[in-house]
Structure prediction request, 386 residues.
Amino acid sequence: MKKVFPIFFCVSMLLCLFCAPLPAMAQDITLVPSLDIRGEYNDNVLFERTNEIDDYLATISPALTLEYATELLNLESKIGVDFLRYVDQTDLNTENQRYEFNGGYRFTERWALSGDFSYIKDTTLESELEETGLVNVRQDRHRYNAGGGLSYQVSELSDMSINHIHTKTDYDFVGNVDYDRDVITLSYNRHLKSERDIFTVQPSYFNSDSEVSEVDNYGLSLGWSHSFSETLQLRAFLGGRYTELSSKEEEQTDRNWGGTADISLKKTGEVSSTLIGYTRDLGTSAFGGPIEVDRIYCDLRRRVTRRLAVGFRGNLYFTRSVGTFDDENSRYSEVIPFLNYQITENHTLQLAYSYSLEEDRNLSEDRESERNRVWIALNFGFPRRW
Prediction:
């Protein structure tokens, strides 16, 4: 399975090539090679509570994005590799990989299809931390995603869709548990004539299956999207869930109810932008058990001069196990102030600092671990359009 990523790459390239020569259609092709070069100091490389290790890290990230668009067809392929090299801890040197392909096709005025495929190889310490707020042993993780959707325009003011995505997650570390996850979502959207409000009804189902557990989750969310103005938008989804948790090790089943949420407020202006939000959802930990994750986040940016901008990102996670799976109960927070300098239209320099704090509430002592990082990064983009 770990050799699947070349298939995704070949399929995406072939589809782009086969679909490109359509002379009867106006088409846009965009090719964006890019290169990120980053130097970083990290005072707790493995994010441990004791025996902290500091080191310097260089990351070189070449990437390529290819987009093809017509009135009916949209295709996008992304390829990226991160080469991570440490000065002292050379055994941690690795290469992260990302291969993504997605597309959409409108075959009538009312009906449209979409699909996506991806393979991502990264490390659990960073990926699981971003997704769940949990600090795990640093090991390689392989994730495969394949999904598709069908949408129908019911009228000028309403539409409906069905989407399915299958995810397979494999870990190199024997202490972690591989799992499969299937998510099916139905959506019905109703636009008001004012064009400022959209109301959504969204039933969903997902199944997560691993060697230690199986989870069946049924949810129903009600959503409201409102544009206060051209620069201020609110999006709010609230719902409930019913979950059946089957422990394969103890041969027992738990049933419980819970809530879900996805709320965000976004304001964009000529010199500043603000995004704040809150989410609550059910996920799966690296040890195979279901977890409930609450996340509060923000992203603030302001342009000081034509080239210089300042910003701040923040995240706060509360993560706990659900049902009989009581191995997770943690809090994780991160703050990132940064400076961006626009060298040219497609070249950017960034200076940033990150402070992270994780607390494992299941421990009686040494509950907290801290990490400080400082980095400077150069991003080079070379877009070309036809």
User: Anything to note?
Assistant: Residues 5-19 form the longest helix (15 residues). Residues 1-24 have pLDDT under 50 and may be disordered. Helices lie at 5-19, 124-132. Residues 199 and 363 are 44 Å apart (CA to CA).
